Amino acid sequence: MRKNPLLAIVPVLLLLLTSAADAHAMLERAEPRVGNKVASPPGQVTLWFTQKLEPAFSNITVTNAAGERVDTGKTRVSGNQMSIAIRAGGAGTYRVNWQVLSVDTHRTDGSFTFQVGQ
Ligand SMILES: [Cu+2]
Asked: Which of 2-6, 22-26, 69-73, 75-79 has the weakest average pLDDT?
């Protein structure tokens, strides 16, 4: 009885698909840095990811200590990097929320904070 040679490559294909699916766009680093303290409000927030991003479906919002939006609403995406300009929103804890669609069509999201002031 002959085995179908195509069956032999199925496990290999499954392995390739699985490892590709694990490689979602995760946050690699940010400026201001995650959890860091800066003396005055930065002019923008920039995030770097582990994969290239789809500009139309990737965005950032930033809120200040009072929970008010301080971002301009215009996220700029370039390769695996995205950034947004922010207005000065006083001292305290700023929260950065991000959502991205990576080029492998997987969505990921997350948030982090940084501190402004002494
Ligand atoms: Cu993925």
From this structure: 2-6
* Cut 0.85: pTM above it: no
For ligand 1, the distance from its centroid to the CA atom of residue 99, given in whole angstroms, is 13
Statement: residue 85 has pLDDT above 70: yes
Burial of 20 per CB tally in 10 Å (0-12, 13-18, 19+): exposed
* Angle, CA of 112, 113 and 116, to the nearest 5°: 160
Tell me the CA–centroid distance for residue 98 and ligand 1, in Å: 16
Could you tell me if 109 and 103 are in contact, meaning their C-beta atoms sit under 8 angstroms apart?
no
The pLDDT of residue 23? 73
Q: How many CB atoms lie within 10 A of CB 33?
A: 11
